[in-house]
Amino acid sequence: MSDTHVPSLPPYRIGLTGGIGSGKSRVADRLAELGAALIDTDVIAHQLTAAGGDAMPALRAEFGDAIADAQGALDRAAMRDRVFRDPAARGRLERILHPMIGAAVDREAATARGCYQVFVVPLLVESGRWRDRVDRICVVDCDPATQIARVGIRSGLAPEAVERILQAQATREARLAVADDVIVNDGLTSPERLREHVDAMHATWLALAARRDPSPSHRPAP
Ligand code: ADP
User: Could you give the domains of the chain?
Assistant: First the structure.
């Protein structure tokens, strides 16, 4: 390494969250088009619980083979049902999955390249462990009626089933209470308007990423 080598700053990090059907994936896709590096905890969780996924042996040992489908992937409906009937099962599931997701997030973040990093975390508010890991929290905000309608169209789930999921998630108010930035994507927001809003947010984050303080190790000694 030459004397003129300038160590690069750690990447600027955004935590992106929102309830089911709020539009997180749409927002994340647009941010990726604009050059952000995406690290998606849902994608990671799916990989860990796919057939042959790293979490499957521990999950089968904990919950039995009934939570795996014929290919050996996690049977999400069976697991959801199990957690619904036995609330303690949720904690057991999380104790297996969360450390594995955390390790995979760290691995991806260490190599992800982009103008900043976006951590897509559906349960960011619920997990409470993200505040210190990101520079800003951005909430995609949506009214519950629109969430229910969107998820119904996307996955064919009945309104009551979506409502059950909503009730297990943080409330709209709890999310907004921790937000540094809010992207409104309610029933009145057209896809074009959403895109404009995301593009404006991107410009703000680029500016913040460029002018933030150097990390402590790069500051002159006091
Ligand atoms: P999430 O990732 O938060 O669950 P998605 O981004 O998958 O939500 O959005 C849920 C569904 O609603 C998707 O089918 C998406 O295309 C649609 N959607 C999201 N925002 C809008 C919008 N502003 N107008 C129309 N459809 C939308």
Answer: 12-36+117-210 (3.40.50.300), 40-113 (no CATH)
Buried b (16+ CB within 10 A) or exposed e, 81-95: ebbeeeeebeeebee
pTM of the model: 0.89
Distance in angstroms (rounded) separating the CA atoms of residues 91 and 211:
41
Nearest Cα to 107, choosing from 158, 44, 152?
Answer: 44
Contact residues for 212 (Cβ-Cβ < 8 A; gap 6+): 12, 135
Residue of 15, 7, 9, 8 whose CA lies nearest to 36:
15
- How many of the other CB atoms lie within 10 Å of CB of 130? 20
Ligand 1 binding site (Cβ under 6 Å of any ligand atom): 18, 20-26, 150, 154, 185, 189, 191, 194
Instruction: Report the distance separating Cα 163 and Cα 184, nearest Å.
Output: 20
- Tokens 């990090």: give the residue: 13
pLDDT tens track for 24-62: 999 999 999 999 999 999 999 999 999 999 999 999 999
Q: Give the closest residue (by CA) to ligand 1 atom 4.
A: 21
